[in-house]
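Annex B. Sample input.
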Amino acid sequence: MQPKVYFAEQHDIRDSSIDKDALFVLSRLREEGFIAYLVGGGVRDLLMGKEPKDFDISTSARPEQVKRLFRNCILIGRRFRLAHVRFGKQIIEVSTFRSGETEESNLILRDNVWGSPEQDVLRRDFTINGLFYDPSDHKIIDYVGGFKDLTLHLLRTIGTPSARFRQDPVRMIRCLKFRARFGFQIDQEILSALSECRDEILKSSPARLLEEMLRMLESGASEPFFHLLQEFGFLDLLFPALAIAMRREVGSTIFAYLRAADNYVLATKEAPPLDRAVLVSSLLFPLLQDKLEEHIAETGKEATSTAIHELAWQIEEEALSNSFLEFPRKLRAFIGFILESQLRLNPQSGPVVRRARVASHPDFHLALQFLSLRSLVDPSVTEVYNTYKELPKRPSRRRLPKEE
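Annex B, continued. Sample output.
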């Protein structure tokens, strides 16, 4: 198959928009006689005028050859062997061109069969992620029509959607992710395959799915993403307690929190990012508020601290333990603390305790960050948030690291 090639005058990618470490890795690989291209989401984002989060490279060099070229390189993964070239906190991910995946392939468990650039593209998920960029002569190499699909704002799989989704069911979630982030139209054949293959999602790795969910909560497009999960029936499979809640009146409050988180991400890019525990808490806190309102309606009394503690951990247990996603214990501990702390910082009724004991907790920064998010949903909380924000800062515990 001959690719279509687009030269500098046909696109807007400039080397000044590409990370200098990625350009160094590309140059070094080419100097040693290997083929090396920028690939995937980085190329897509550059063509869309967005700043890429990652600059990934595909090459003809084997992982061990990449490691020999770069002393700051480590090899990771068994199912999918990769080279990570480290520059301080920056990681340039380098993968070897792969082959071995066809329309007839079953669920992919290992993916370390080396191939050509064309074979590598044909085993990728969507055409918009199947573009190579060669900075040595500023050309885009397109085997699958991804350049045209980008201009049309169209999502198409590389190959038959149903086959591609069965090989790697996480691709269905990634499809909804791109729809939510970019507003692209979904090809009609994909829409049919999403319905046909939906239950295949339960064959996926829970850890991979959790990472996709967490990244979308951080993306600034979590509200449309969760609407799509609900619309296509994936929420019932992956997060049943949340799916039930979102069909009730409290669902509108959950979406209000997602919208507030998205606005925070998009409006305050220079500010510290919202912690992952804070973002997951935004899904569960409305459920706690709902339970506490039921308690007051039934008893005529505000819940005691003990009752709040029990309800907070009960809601977390019901929502997270019964989900298909595997939430780490450390993350769950942070979420439980955030939920329980909110009603101490800002009781449902009665005076606010200006220096509640929770303010001395080593994880108080998480409670305060969530209180900030609450103030975006409920402006009446703003004064309380400002009061606690002025308290002397305590050293915070290390944030939960992202999985690689």
